[in-house]
Amino acid sequence: MTGAAPRYKRLRGWGLLALIALTLLGIFEYSLGLLEQPGAYGHVGYLWDASAPMVISVVFPGRAAERAGVRIGDRIDLDRLYSKRTTTYDPVIYYQLPPGARVEIPFIRGTKRLTIAITLGSAMSEPPYYLYTNDFNNVISIMLLLLGAWIVIRRPTLMTWSLFAFCVGSSQSLVLSRFGYGAVLGNALVSALLQTGAFLIVFASRVPNDGSSSWRRWFAAAAFALYFLGVFVSGYSIVAWSILGLPAQYVFPPSWIGVAVNDAVWILVLIAVVASYAVARGQDRERMRWVALGITMIAASNVPSFVPALLGPGIPFLESSLAIIVGAIGLVAIAYGIVKGRIVDVTFVLSHAVVAAVLAGLIVAAFAVADWGVSKLLASTRLGIITDIALAIAIGFSFSGLHRRVDAIVDRMFFRKRYSADQALTQAAHAVLHASSADAIREFLVDEPHAALGLSSAALFEPADARKWKRTRAIGWADDTLQELAANDALVLHVLAEQAPVKTMNMRWAASSLPIGLAHPVVAVPVLARRRVVAIALYGQHANGADIDADEIAAIQRVADAAGAAFDHVEAENLRRENEAQAHRIEELMQQLDPHGSGA
Buried b / exposed e across 57-91, counting CB within 10 Å, b at 16+? Predict the structure, then answer.
């Protein structure tokens, strides 16, 4: 197709299956952290630092490790621990027995080899504020994951898939320890594969309009390379020790490799979002402002130097908590930016979701009040059942009207722009019925939807003869764009057959010289008069890049239906005038032939 806008095929088959599977996997991973209950799982009471693997860096006062005699600087002897890892303790994949279990852990202290018996405690090493911030982050992450899945369904592109992939996070939790060593090992391997921060590079470089210029493709290539490097760094130690049992000196790669890969990912994220923001112009820059802020906050929170490690060993979780909070706020900013800037239009879904929630709440409240009233005032079970049945019947009969009222109230309160556009088009549908010329009707069909909905283009085609349809009015269509549609054009045939709005992306339409980019028509709306298509109106996407949703198409269709009646009225009025003119002309000719009115 010449000059076509990007086509977004419906998600189906393997793509839809992958989306569902990854969504469920992401929810499962985030839920692990939410399900972890204080006191239900065993804790050793010490920490070791990634910069010096297996070397104890923190021993918590009064906890199991201190009581057993573990000291800062002791190193876990992986070579001696390997044979017992599946039944006692695996520090690489975070596998531990329940509270009260006695585990013998081999250590190296200087030149001495020790085996220290630790009775696992129930007190968690993490302070409450750290657990709360993690829970907050997990809840926000699940919400953004669901939003990411929805926008992939709405518009499956590399931009939306990359955001969704970033949202599929991982979690290593003690919850799985109760299901055995295999469950913990499997989850650790999955978590290694879900090191998806690199995919935010792709999203940051392509937002807000899924741009695909050459410099953006370089960012995508770098993102995929860093993803595989991250998977290798995260998964190597698990495979090397927990599965293969390699000697300790081969289990952990140099710590600088992981730091370098992590820093490279988030620095590239920052560069990508700055580049996208710099090249964006006008409304596009305004649309991506919140998204850019959110991406920046997430990137900053993942750079180790963001919260300097100056807090001392007494509060080792504070800097992590601050980074988690900043990252979670960044996720909220991205979600808000997607909705506010209509990066992918989700207001249609949000509006209907709010309406459904309000209706459900009203119905539940009505039954609750009815039950309370009957039980308190009449204390009759049979009468209570009768009241519930009567109430259900009443709600059933009034549900349609109630839905319309709640829908209008919700749109007016929370989605005022949509409500105003719908009202403007409703008024246009009423006004066009009084139009007395075809030009006025064409203006209502093209100019009103374009202005009310903020569309990038609109055009009207009408039959010129049996072989073609001619463009009679347009906004956003240049003079050198399509002027005529053949009578056998695929779009014309689809509209004639359906006599209903048609999405151009759902059909094979090979017309040439169409507007490019956002102005490319995405929906065709028929104008019907006496079940005959008298015009076809074409509309492009919103000027901010969002698609036209079902409610907006329905509002345009109301204008088109009224315009069809107006066209029919104008045509009938023109025929009446022609008949009157013909009658007047015949009368004049009769007078010329018989000026004296003799009738001879």
Answer: ebbbeebbbeebebeeebbbbbebbbeebeebbbb
Bridge partners (DSSP) listed for residue 75: 55, 108
pLDDT at residue 353, as a whole number: 46
CA neighbor of 170 nearest in space, from 253, 266, 260, 94: 94
Q: How far is CA 300 from CA 305, 366, 369, in A?
A: 9, 49, 51
Neighbours of 333 (CB within 10 A): 20
For residue range 199-254, list pLDDT tens digits in order: 999 999 998 877 778 889 999 999 999 999 999 988 999 999 899 989 988 888 88
**Spatial CA neighbour of 251 closest among 83, 49, 82:** 82
CATH topology of domain 46-119: Pdz3 Domain (2.30.42)
Paired sense of beta strands 521-529 and 532-540, if any: antiparallel
Mean pLDDT of 13-25: 85
CA triple 446-451-454, angle to 5 deg: 110
Asked whether the beta carbons of 91 and 77 are under 8 A apart, the reply is no
- Comparing 599 with 585, the larger pLDDT belongs to 585
Distance CA 536, CA 469 (A): 9
8 A C-beta contact, residue 469 and residue 488: no
Which pLDDT score is estimated for 314? 42
- Whether 46-119 shares its CATH topology with 429-580 is answered no
Nearest to 424 by CA among 453, 459, 457, 456: 453
For residue 408, the model assigns a pLDDT of: 58
**Is the pLDDT confidence value at 282 over 80?**
no
For 178-187, b where at least 16 C-beta lie within 10 A, e where not — what string? eeebeebbeb
Pick the CATH number of 429-580 from 3.30.450.40, 3.80.10.10, 3.40.190.10, 3.30.930.10: 3.30.450.40
Alpha helices in 10-157 (DSSP H): 13-35, 64-68, 78-81, 128-154
**Do the bridges between strand 502-503 and strand 521-529 make them parallel or antiparallel, or are there none, so unpaired?**
antiparallel
Q: What is the residue extent of each domain of the chain?
A: 13-37+126-344, 46-119, 351-414, 429-580
Query: What dihedral do alpha carbons 504, 508, 512, 518 form, nearest 10°?
Result: 30
pLDDT of residue 593: 74
Shortest CA distance to 32 belongs to which of 146, 137, 147?
A: 137
Q: What pairs with residue 117 in β-bridges?
A: 104
**The model scores a pTM over 0.70:** no
Are 505 and 8 in contact by the 8 Å Cβ rule? The answer is yes
3-class state of residue 313 by DSSP: coil
Tokens for 399, please give them: 């549900």
Q: Which amino acid is at 123?
A: A
**Long-range contacts at 27-31 (CB < 8 A, ≥ 24 apart):** 27/142, 27/145, 29/168, 29/169, 29/170, 29/171, 29/187, 29/190, 29/191, 29/194, 30/138, 30/141, 30/142, 30/145, 30/169, 30/171, 31/138, 31/142
pLDDT of residue 598: 59
Q: Phi first, then psi: give them for residue 173, nearest 5 degrees.
A: -130, 150
Query: Which residue matches tokens 């009815």?
Result: 370
Rg (CA), the chain: 34
Whole-number pLDDT of residue 305: 52
- Phi, psi angle pair for 64, to nearest 5°: -55, -45
